[in-house]
């Protein structure tokens, strides 16, 4: 919901009385399970969001559970109310407010995808349609000729936004929707797994921003290849920004990341066994590169097959967690879960001083490879100097000894990570289970040759089936 529309829900706060937000979250979750058999894990943050007015109209089962726990007859007595019914959506709407609008008829509009730190924002053509449920796993949307024509334009990304009878919103990638309609006429399916929530919003946000940025500078990145080849033979390289065409921030990060990945692979022979990979991603925007950039997925496959015992260290101070919206924290959690999917044990430090240390790989020697917050495109060294080696060894010892994720199993570490990031672990596992059956490409399908959904689909299947996956089966799930 946009800040300008938010109104604190004083009635809900008054009804809660002396009960804590944590207790209310537990009671409501239990009431939902008793009524529906569905496992929902509301958190104290969820209650806070309702009381602060971020969400005005929960699902029907959630509203009923609130009424039961707080002993009221109607959800309106708790300050919940339907968003204003409009015949058409506003001409332009923020992606993160998508679930707050009620749509009365088929119509079109624009979704504004928020910017980020390097992300510059994007725009998606949205085609809204009422939908009827068919069976237990899908909605049916009857496309019009106008809708299909609008989604067939090659110059813009588009989404179908299907709205069910309870005003829940579901999305489908426009291009894939058109492709299906071309193969089979009549109503088209939209999976119920594509419901709009922090998971789907995060996927769309990252994919649309990265896709737009890399498509915009694709030719410049191709011309930068000659400079990369020239620098690959050097043991020390500081990628000079003025040696390549002018690039937008995401394209520049992609180029730096691509060079650093190759640099580490070229210097595997120096590392020995059991290396620690130190990375600088602290927010979901940066970490989404692991989920979407094709070369990073291949890099993970390559490194995990080379080393049997690996760790990857992250530093995520509490200030970064508090500053990030939940959909971005979901992406960060998924990126770190992808490491575990490849058999790479994650290490988490919250010490702010660790965040200032550049990216490196440490075993008997240290290879420096840094592209995030680098003064140039990249900063690499085949072998760190003795003073820097000492810094890396000290940091590695402190991070491993003080990791916030000291559980013995991947599922234990990821559950602890979810708690630290304030992402309901039970909810995420349930949602990944739903999406594992359909895949994410029907939510956000990248067009850039440099992007892929392999990382996203791999980690979603991994989180969904983490209890049964073992060993080499992990990253092949």
Number of helices: 18
What is the domain total for the residues?
3
What is the percentage of strand-forming residues? 15-25%
Which segments are poorly predicted (pLDDT under 50) over 5 or more consecutive residues?
85-89
Lateral arrangement of strands in the main beta sheet: 11-17-16-15-12-13-14
Any idea what the shape is?
A: globular
Largest sheet: 7 strands, mixed
User: Care to count the β-strands?
Assistant: 17
* Structure classification: alpha/beta
Helix content: 40-55%
Radius of gyration: 23 Å
- Could you give the distance between the termini? 36 Å
- Please, what is the average pLDDT? 89
Q: What can you tell me about this protein's structure?
A:
It is a single chain. This protein has 477 residues and is an alpha/beta fold. The chain folds into 3 domains: 3-78, 434 Repressor (Amino-terminal Domain), CATH 1.10.260; 96-196, no CATH class; 217-476, no CATH class. Helices cover 43% and strands 16% of the residues. The protein is built from 18 helices and 17 strands. The protein has helices at 10-16, 21-36, 44-51, 60-70, 145-151, 174-183, 198-216, 218-223, 225-232, 249-266, 284-292, 294-306, 318-323, 326-341, 386-401, 410-421, 425-436, 454-464, and strands spanning 85-86, 92-94, 102-103, 107-113, 122-130, 132-134, 138-141, 158-163, 169-173, 188-191, 236-238, 276-278, 310-315, 344-349, 360-362, 366-370, 379-381. The radius of gyration is 23 Å and the shape is globular. Mean pLDDT is 89; it is low at 85-89.
Q: What are the defining features of this structure?
A:
18 helices; 434 Repressor (Amino-terminal Domain); 7-stranded mixed beta sheet; alpha/beta; 3 domains; 5-stranded mixed beta sheet
């Amino acid at each position: 919901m946009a800040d300008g529309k938010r109104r604190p829900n004083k009635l809900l706060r008054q009804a809660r009385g002396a009960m804590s937000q944590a207790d209310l979250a537990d009671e409501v979750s239990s009431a939902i399970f008793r009524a529906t058999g569905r496992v929902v894990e509301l958190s104290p943050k969820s209650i806070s969001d309702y009381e602060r007015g971020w969400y005005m109209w929960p699902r029907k089962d959630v509203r009923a559970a609130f009424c039961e726990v707080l002993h009221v007859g109607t959800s309106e007595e708790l300050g919940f109310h339907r968003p204003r019914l409009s015949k058409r959506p506003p001409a332009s709407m923020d992606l993160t407010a998508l679930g707050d609008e009620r749509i009365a008829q088929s119509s079109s509009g624009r979704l504004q995808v928020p910017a980020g730190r390097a992300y510059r924002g994007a725009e998606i053509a949205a085609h809204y349609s009422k939908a009827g449920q068919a069976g237990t796993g899908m909605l049916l949307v009857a496309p019009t000729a106008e809708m299909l024509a609008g989604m067939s334009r090659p110059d813009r990304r588009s989404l179908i936004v299907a709205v069910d009878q309870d005003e829940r919103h579901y999305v489908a990638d426009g291009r894939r929707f058109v492709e299906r309609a071309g193969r089979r006429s009549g109503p088209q399916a939209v999976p119920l797994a594509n419901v709009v929530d922090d998971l789907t919003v995060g996927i769309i946000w990252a994919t649309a921003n990265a896709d737009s940025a890399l498509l915009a500078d694709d030719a410049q990145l191709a011309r930068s290849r000659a400079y990369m080849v020239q620098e690959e033979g050097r043991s020390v390289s500081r990628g000079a920004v003025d040696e390549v065409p002018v690039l937008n921030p995401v394209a520049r990060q992609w180029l730096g990341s691509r060079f650093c990945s190759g640099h580490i692979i070229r210097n595997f022979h120096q590392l020995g066994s059991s290396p620690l990979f130190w990375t600088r991603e602290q927010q979901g925007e940066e970490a989404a590169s692991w989920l979407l950039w094709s070369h990073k997925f291949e890099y993970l496959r390559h490194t995990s097959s080379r080393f049997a015992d690996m760790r990857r260290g992250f530093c995520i101070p509490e200030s970064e967690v508090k500053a990030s919206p939940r959909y971005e924290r979901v992406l960060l959690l998924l990126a770190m879960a992808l490491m575990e999917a490849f058999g790479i044990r994650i290490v988490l430090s919250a010490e702010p001083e660790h965040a200032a240390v550049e990216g490196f790989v440490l075993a008997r020697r240290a290879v420096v490879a840094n592209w995030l917050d680098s003064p140039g495109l990249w900063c690499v060294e085949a072998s760190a100097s003795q003073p820097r080696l000492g810094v890396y060894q000290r940091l590695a010892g402190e991070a491993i000894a003080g990791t916030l994720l000291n559980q013995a199993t991947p599922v234990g570490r990821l559950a602890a990570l979810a708690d630290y990031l304030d992402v309901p672990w039970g909810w995420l596992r349930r949602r990944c289970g739903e999406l594992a059956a359909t895949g994410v490409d029907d939510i956000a399908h990248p067009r850039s040759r440099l992007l892929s959904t392999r990382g996203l689909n791999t980690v979603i299947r991994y989180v969904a089936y983490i209890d049964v996956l073992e060993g080499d089966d992990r990253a092949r799930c």
